[in-house]
Amino acid sequence: MRKWPGAARRLSAWNRGAAMVLTGSDYLRGSRISPDALKKQLSGLWKTVFGDGPDYTSVFLGSTAFRPEDTVLSLDGGGLAAMLFLLPVSLEGMHGRYIYAVATHPDFRGRGHAGTMLEFAQRLTEGRGEDFTCLHPASDSLYGFYRRFGFETAFYIREVSRKLRTGADFPRLRIERISAERFAALYAEALPERRDACLKWGEETLTFLCREAEAQDGGALAVEGGMGKGFCLFTCLEKGTAVVKETVFSGGITEELLDVLAAYWSGKSVIFRLPENFGNFPEKITEKAVLHPFGMIKYKKELLDLQGGGTRTRGFMGIALD
Question: I need a labelling partner for 151 at 20 to 30 A (CA). Which of 60, 174, 239, 262 fits?
Fold first, then answer.
């Protein structure tokens, strides 16, 4: 009989069979399977739930962003029923975790696996001295689900759609594709200058963020010229649309800059994700920007008590793994 570590927490008695939630590290010790076998199980569950094959899942599972000790698993009848991953982030001087790829196998849905993993993750991170967990719901309907477990909407974006203005006289800017390593270096260099309410990703995750974008026909760009210098991270969707997840630029986010960037994707519609107060735009442009809730947060109890029981964050989560 398997002797699971004490960290594993049994689910409610109404669940069918023996079910428990634990970290990937404890699962490896208790089941005595190899790390590669664990990755194969995770990849299989990922494909079942999200539809992504090994070419995509290997981008994460083969990176330094994946760590068994930051993986939360729920077992049902001894088999893998659900998973989520915890990635390091910071916000306003606090350290926390971004909850990534919450997934429950269709055969085990409706048994409380996701909710129990979320509660386990909160206790796990608080026990490590971290201040919060946050996430980006995959659909609007999931905001209500996560609210049941103490998460509050805390991040917003403004989406600005741009199309190449034919005949426009664009300033000269050098725009070039850059490697995941160069993106990570530019991002880390820009961190001290970022706004306080902007979610900031940990160094362990930066190259993965860029490679995940590349797996979606996107990547990172470096931009430099008379207007300033900076970078952006983008993905490409179907129907010829590019989504620029985050833009960091020393000269500020202006209409002129977005026109220059939009010209890079000639013939495509470009959607920019920007903070609520995103730059020097004419009023007619800002009126057309669409405001969306874009992420939720759950602080540890001590911080909630200091804030009077609710979050006051209204921040920006530009780079979301969505």
Answer: 60
Ranges of H-type helices in 51-192: 54-61, 113-127, 142-147, 180-190
Alpha helix (H) ranges present in the chain?
Answer: 24-31, 35-50, 54-61, 113-127, 142-147, 180-190, 203-214, 255-264, 283-286, 301-306
Q: 178 to each of 182, 207, 218, 221, 233, how far by Cα in Å? A: 6, 11, 11, 6, 10
Amino acid letter, 85: F
φ, ψ dihedrals at 290, nearest 5°: -100, 125
Whole-angstrom distance, CA of residue 85 vs CA of residue 46 = 12
pLDDT value of residue 43? 97
Angstrom distance (rounded) from CA 189 to CA 192: 7
What's the CA gap between 157 and 270, in Å, rounded? 15
Residues 6+ apart with CB under 8 A from 125: 86, 96, 97, 132, 133, 300
What is the amino acid identity at position 38? L
Specify the pLDDT at position 16.
43
Phi-psi category of residue 252: left, alpha or beta, with phi > 0 → left and psi -120 to 50 → alpha: left
272 vs 285: CA distance, rounded Å: 13
**CA 123 to chain centroid:** 20
**What's the N-to-C CA distance of the chain in angstroms?**
39
More confident residue, 64 or 78: 64
**pLDDT score of 322:** 83
pLDDT, residue 196, reads: 65
Whole-model pTM: value is 0.91
How do strand 71-76 and strand 19-23 relate by DSSP bridges?
A: antiparallel
Q: How many CB atoms lie within 10 A of CB 86?
A: 22
> pLDDT digits over 188-247, tens only?
988 766 666 889 999 889 999 999 999 999 999 999 988 889 999 999 877 778 999 999
Cα 145 to the center of its chain, rounded Å: 18
Of residues 303, 230, 316, the one with CA closest to residue 273:
316
